[in-house]
Give the backbone structure.
Amino acid sequence: MTLAAEEYANFIAERVKHIFQNNIHNDCISSALVCQISKLVTPEHSLSANNIHSYKMRGVDLTSIISSKLSVSVCKSVKCKVDSDNGILSLISTSESANYVERQINFFVDNQVSFKNRQELVLSFCSNNSVPIKAIPTLSVINHLVKYGLKLTIPLSIKYPAKLPEVWKCINQKQPKTMSELSSCMISLSKSSLITSTFPSLVSKSIHFYPELPENKAVPPLFYIRTGKGINDSKLGFQVSMTTSRPFINGSSEVVVFRLKNESGNSAFLFEEKVKSALIQQGIAPVEKKSDHYNLSFNDLVIQVIKVVCLNAELLNFVTSFHFTESLAIYPLTRHSKFQAPGKQKHQKLENPVSEIANNQTIEKSTFDWLLRVLTHHAASFGYNIEINKIQEE
């Protein structure tokens, strides 16, 4: 049953990947959105919120599997809906105020409309629509976007009236002059919002995203995770001196840097040792004979380490700021077994696969009925030969 549910999640991800891969601003997904997609893709076997919850309680997080395949984040809620036009799926934002503000800004940019004062600007937004005052951009933001001809596309993860002031603040601070710089500004803001919503413990920390990590942000003492030579190769380590080689700066690799407090000479070393120990306890060990390399993708190792740090108040207190390259996809990893890396086997805790029947576990009837319909309908494409036998009670 677990395998079949994962196959269905992969099937859903394949059907909607064009929506997310062709538009970087479609940067998140939610369980409710997965239910919408399921209803459109397999209307006769659509998922319900109860189905998703039932599987999640049994260790199969369908939403996370789909988000991982799409390299997007999981949000509790996403203000959008999925439409189907002759079988072609598209994603539409349902945040009316945010949509209206975005359209108005782009109208001003297209027509080179600038404003002399705040009152004039507010009236232009509120004359035909009811918009919260705090959602209206500042005078300096509008005039800056108009001056440089920058049309705005707000990512789904921050397309809420309550979050729009953060957008205006970001533009004011970074003063983008090209579409590439504006896009980078929006990505940085959405990633910061997503990582703090996924890991609430990080709200009090300074978080930054960059297309490439600048040299002046990699200041020791620090702990880092960077890409290795292959897709499933990543490395972690620490540095205490500016004289040490830093091969991860200025775009030489994808990286996350944890800047640490300089309370003692060995704080970075102790931080690394505690992180490694916590990973081993989760069955994630380094590659044999390489104590700092892991058979995990950069993204997966980063998320696992962040989870370790968030669950350890002492480690989290050591960190002053986080610095990421923008490639990081933020989504929860719930099934540790698939991330176990080969290495020192004595540290690994191997578990036999769970058999629901052998262990007399139960599954909700609605979920069983849905799974049975899906298995029967997609048996050929999933590679199953389905036979159903009714169990006679003795």
Q: What stands out?
A: Confidence is low (pLDDT under 50) at residues 335-360.
